[in-house]
Design goal:
With about 170 residues, the chain is mainly alpha-helical. Helix content is about 85%, strand content about 5%. The chain contains two helices and two strands; from the N terminus they run E-E-H-H. It has helices at about 20-105, 110-165; strands spanning about 5, 15-20. Strand 1 and strand 2 form a beta hairpin. It is elongated, with a radius of gyration of 44 Å.
């Protein structure tokens, strides 16, 4: 920028004269700075909007999770109530069967002894069912392991065919 001193009409004061080219360069720089500031402002606003959007989404997700937890809790209560009713029904049926069974015997002690034998058989049957379930689960686990091994071998063979000797 070229600055020149030139006398003012009062004679002793001076003013600075700036070339037209320098003025144009200065205004272009100011315009460019203004546009950069506008762009920067837009970027900041976009970041703020993104932050607001993320916060809103997180709040919605938390609300949805809270509602799902409440629904699951209600479902759990309903399941527990159904299980309670089922167990209560089984207890009542067992009691009714016991009373009917004991009526067959004139000697209460003999009837109680026979009922204890029935309960023993019931417990053995439940134990057998539990063991069978454990065996089934073990077999299922072994089958899944074998399926996984087959999948790994098939993958290795496919890799060897496609990329093996390259």
């Amino acid at each position: 920028m070229s600055l020149e001193s030139a006398p003012y009409s009062a004679g002793q004061s001076t003013y600075l004269a700036i070339d037209n080219v320098d003025v144009k360069t200065l205004t272009d720089s100011l315009d460019s700075a203004r546009e950069s500031a506008k762009s920067l402002t837009k970027q900041v606003e976009a970041f703020q909007k993104d932050g607001t959007d993320v916060a809103t989404q997180l709040a919605q997700d938390r609300l949805r999770a809270k509602k799902e937890a409440q629904v699951k809790q209600r479902l759990a209560i309903h399941k527990a109530l159904a299980e309670y009713r089922q167990r209560k029904l089984i207890s009542q049926e067992e009691y009714t069967l016991k009373v009917e069974f004991l009526r067959q015997f004139k000697n209460v002690a003999l009837g109680e002894k026979e009922w204890a034998e029935i309960l023993k058989i019931k417990n053995e049957l439940e134990k057998l069912e539990k063991e069978e379930k454990q065996k089934y689960d073990g077999d299922l686990k072994n089958i899944r392991r074998a399926q996984l091994m087959c999948l790994l071998v098939a993958g290795w063979i496919a890799w060897a065919i496609v990329w093996g000797d390259k």
